[in-house]
Design brief:
Oligomer: single chain
Number of strands: 0
Largest sheet: none
Helix content: over 70%
Structural class: mainly alpha
Distance between the termini: 62 Å
Strand content: under 5%
């Protein structure tokens, strides 16, 4: 319910009463579990993160390297129909994380999990011989995280520049910079 209200009116205009109405509860029932707006935003972010994490783990099970990385990013990127809407919640959370140490800590813990998965995929790609020579894994992890975060912002602030096709093109371009070029064929 909180996610839907944030999508509809934004975090700054969110009220506990509106969340209760959306959820079909009395205002007091919500206030008992969420004492303030920050707790609501944190719960909404964690729910979206958990849902994405469940999808990621299902999609990469039994898959390695750059294929797993691509599948993971496709679950993180703001694909339609819901991704651009959920990106509004993520951006609101980032705004509060930049100003609140506890919210920053929550974001960091969750983001580090994804960064560890990015790193694992890249290490597997190197082990399997599919990672291009000269790729620094830590730098690549930063680039992947930055691109995923950037697409979240673009989908909200410039939606005409972030359709599914553009997301696919951007991800394909990123993966191609990481992939070892194909060996020339013998004639």
């Amino acid at each position: 319910a909180a996610t839907q209200v944030i999508i509809r009116v934004g975090f700054d205009n969110l009220t506990m009463r509106e969340i209760a109405t959306e959820a079909g509860y009395a205002h007091g029932a919500i206030a008992r579990y969420f004492p303030d707006k920050r707790s609501v935003l944190t719960a909404a972010f964690l729910r979206l993160y958990t849902l994405a994490n469940d999808r990621i783990h299902a999609r990469i099970e039994g898959v390695r390297g750059l294929e797993a990385l691509g599948r993971m990013c496709r679950e993180i990127l703001p694909y339609s129909p819901n991704g651009p809407l959920y990106a509004k919640v993520v951006i609101a959370f980032w705004d509060h994380a930049s100003q609140d140490d506890e919210v920053t800590r929550i974001h960091r813990v969750n983001n580090l999990h994804w960064r560890d998965l990015f790193r694992q995929c890249l290490v597997e790609a190197r082990e399997d011989g599919e990672l291009a020579d000269g790729i620094d894994i830590d730098t690549a992890v930063n680039e992947i995280a930055s691109r995923n975060a950037g697409w979240q912002m673009i989908s909200v602030l410039m939606p005409d520049s972030a359709g599914d096709g553009r997301l696919n093109d951007g991800l394909d371009a990123l993966l191609s910079t990481l992939r070892r070029p194909a060996a020339p064929s013998a004639r």
